[in-house]
Amino acid sequence: QLQLVVESGGGLVQPGGSLTLSCAGSGFRLDYYSIGWYRQAPGKERKKVSCISSVDGSTHYADSVKGRFTISRDNAKNTVYLQMNSLNSEDTATYYCGAQTSCLSPEPDFGSWGQGTQVTVSS
Questions:
Q1: 36: nearest Cα among 111, 121, 122
Q2: φ and ψ of 2, to 5 deg
């Protein structure tokens, strides 16, 4: 499958800090789809952390990030963002995004996983 999205914005941040990740469509219109953000920590399974619906713009968060992360989309820029605040060491992971038919989908329905963007929270 083709890679339809490109993630960026990761980096090294101190505990309590913030980062904003970007998920850009690569020749692919993101506004037609729900977009999920996922993360995979070393030695652990990839898990969904957030999703924004294409139907009504509703947003969804895993309990572990609720109140700290905010997902949003800018259709003019064909980009979905994940604003991450109050980061801690448990947020250290590679973050991926993907297009899906709805936020109920357990994983992206379209395209292959991208390279992801690494987030490291450390002092």
A1: 111
A2: -80, 150
